[in-house]
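User: For my dataset I need records formatted as: sequence, then structure tokens, nothing else. Please produce one.
Assistant:
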Amino acid sequence: MAASRRLARKLPSLISKHQRLISPETEAPELTEPPTTAASIPLDPSLPVLPLAVSHLSPPSPLPALPSAHASSPASLLRLLRRARHHPRLAPLDLHLLLAAADASPAFRPDHSLTSLLVARLAASRRLPSLRRLLELVLSRPCPCADDSIFACPELVPTFRKAIVAFAASGDIPAASEALASLRRAADSPLPVEFYNIILHALARLRRHDDAVRFYGEMTSVHRVAPDVYTFNILINSSCRAEGVDTAMRWFGEMQRRSCAPTGVSFNTLMRGFFREGRYKEGVKVAREMLELGVGLSVASMEILIGGLCRGGEALKAAELFVEFLGDEVVPEGIDCLVLVEALCCAGKVEKAVEVVDMVLEKRACCLSVPAGVTVLECLMKSRKLDEVYRLVGRMVDQGIVPDTISCNCVFESLCEAGRTADANQLRVLAKEKGFVADGATYSMLVQGFGRQGRLKEGKAVLDEMLDSGFIPNIASYNRLLNALHRGRSFHYQESFTRGVKAPG
């Protein structure tokens, strides 16, 4: 009820504030002066309605009246638009104000600073029809900086590039092609292949492979533009998805015939295509060819190679390749062998997983993460191979790969239950030097383990360390744990005496 009363009190003010925001005004007192003429700026009827993001700020008809000083030159209009960038009423009307200024004076020509700002804003807000209208204005009224030169404005190409990227990113290929054709006619020199790659990538992203091939043919035969490695990488990726890796190999051959050196992206795309089709031998052959040509294996290459083989049920083959590449020192920094270790453990090849981890630790490579090591330790504990667990944890901790507290506690608990509490405590001390932080459960299981084995001195030392670390709240709790330690020792002696006495015959 209280919330309803508060809402009822605030509702009139909210309604009035909303009305002030959306109602058309005849002037903008924050940014303008009283109009010098009674006529206001007319709204261009050919412009589309603003997008949904600013639909509640639809431009009023007619536009707010502005003094002639604000539209007398491109510099003054640029200052106005920069000031009104965050204005709730004028920010969406940037292009309307420019067109109104151009209609008011036939001699008005926007400079490249003004058009570059408007193109960036229209592209960021995805106002594509307005962007097309602005490009028409730029071509019909060239920048004033081109008056004293025989060349076009130097900012014409970067301005059109922003527009082409916006059209291509939104999927409007006809508008992007039209803008590219207009720029090709207006530019002083042939356009670089980068502009064609923008449209080509958009076609490949839209899964229009036939149109991409047709556009490539037009680019090379009609406009005489030499493709680069990025052009062929786009076509190789599109061919792998649309027609298969065999067609992509033909584009790879075309790349080599045009003297374009393939990059790691080219080989990675082909390798992924072979693995996607289940052709594992060809995929491995691509990886070896990368090494022969000196391209080298990147982190992405290793992930594609190992992941593709593991997903295809070839975990042992992946392990052999990984060990081979690790021995040849061609494995890149930053690769993680977690996927390989998980695949080996799921396939029941725990010994091979241990071999891979030992190889990584021997080479001191940064390929073993904590989750990968913990995965192997978990499989070994399930198999009750505590000797391997103890050895592997010691090697991992020695190289600074310290498992988390829960994983370490699981290892300590397994060792304590097997009567190897001293080994568990030794691992704890070693891990503590590398940053391991024990909790109350760690100390409790060690104290109980020493108590079951009757080793009062070691248990008392761990109990005192537990007290110093603040895990025992008071002396009463300490005495109870100490009594439990003594009871565990008495129980150990009783068991030893019972086993030593022979049963009566």
